[in-house]
Amino acid sequence: MTAPTTVLFDAPGPKARVRHLIIGIVGLVVLLLILGLVIRGLANPRNNQLTAEKWSPFLQPSTWLDYLLPGLLSTLKAAGLAIVLSLVFGILLGIGRLSKIRVVSMVSGVFVEFFRSVPVLVMMLFAYYFALYVLHLASNQPFFGVVVGLVFYNSSVIAELIRSGVGSLPSGQREAGLAVGLTEGQAMWSILLPQAITAMLPSLISQLVVVLKDTALGYIIGYYDLVRGGQTFSTNFGNLIPTMLVMAAMFIVINYALTRIAQGVEHSLQRRGRAGGQPDESLPGELTQPPVVAQL
Q1: What CA–CA distances, in Å, run from 235 to 7, 84, 142, 222?
Q2: CA-to-CA distance for 87 and 93, rounded, in angstroms?
Q3: For labelling, which of 96, 120, 140, 143 has a CA lying 20 to 30 Å from the CA of 277?
Q4: In angstroms, rounded to a whole number, what is the distance separating the alpha carbons of residues 209 and 219?
Q5: What's the CA gap between 83 and 190, in Å, rounded?
Q6: pLDDT in tens, 30-43
Q7: Can you state the angle between helices 226-237 and 240-276, rounded to 10 degrees?
């Protein structure tokens, strides 16, 4: 039996494990002390943020129907469209970076490197004012700005994930596809790309969660999302901290659900790959002997 090893570091020994445990306990104690001070400050009568009066508005249907649920639906609409477009353009850009055509590879590389380096908020602002002053959209400028900003940034990140996933595959995968008569494009789409997506799925899941969280930046350009709805609600009822806590819980639930769905897809793909990849132990052209029924 071999000792367990890790990719980036050696497994800690007994002393290191004890040291890590002590550091973890001390860190937990410090965190609990800070949390206690925060709760004590919020419970102070001068702040008055943890009283039942501040939480009672959440029991009213109008709170959800007029403020939080419309904002949540707007958040999901922008995030859903941005996720789909980011995946499509990210895959195309990733394949473009791997293209044998130099012009396609260079253009894809410039696009990816540029938009991956620009902050998402800057791209949202640019897209918002572009829609307002160049396209002259009569409405939905904030929605346009949020979606375009998210798509440009996240498609660039996904393109790099796809390129890294394809690059990590053994070169024999591509050569085997070419050997059976596939073209470069067919080998990419039918052999390399599915394996790369499966291998990079955990990173893709993390990036999809980033897309959902970054929709909150649309608050800056006037997009009515969950943050904007919560801000309007807290202004009317004077319960900022409870509203922030409720919105944080909603984001956590949505992101957790998205992560679980993506993990389910990942496990399904892995099981399908194992089921379809069982090797045949017989040699090519070898005749297998029928089982002996009886011995004479």
Answers
A1: 50, 34, 22, 16
A2: 10
A3: 96
A4: 18
A5: 23
A6: 999 998 887 776 66
A7: 160
User: Could you tell me how many residues make up the chain?
Assistant: 296
Whole-angstrom distance, CA of residue 74 vs CA of residue 95: 32
Reduce the DSSP state of residue 11 to 3 states and report it. Answer: coil
Amino acid in position 112: V
pLDDT tens digits for 221-275?
A: 999 999 999 999 999 988 888 899 999 999 999 988 988 887 787 777 777 666 5
In a 3-state reduction of DSSP, which class is residue 181? coil
Q: Do 88 and 159 meet the contact criterion of CB atoms below 8 Å apart? A: no
∠ CA 226-227-230, rounded to 5°: 85
Higher pLDDT, 186 or 158: 158
Domains of the chain: 60-271 (1.10.3720.10)
Place of tokens 């380096």: 117
Cβ neighbour number for residue 121 with a 10 Å cutoff: 16
DSSP conformation class of 135: S
Tokens at residue 227, please? 């943050």
- Cα separation, 79 vs 94, in Å, equals 21
- Average pLDDT value for the chain: 83
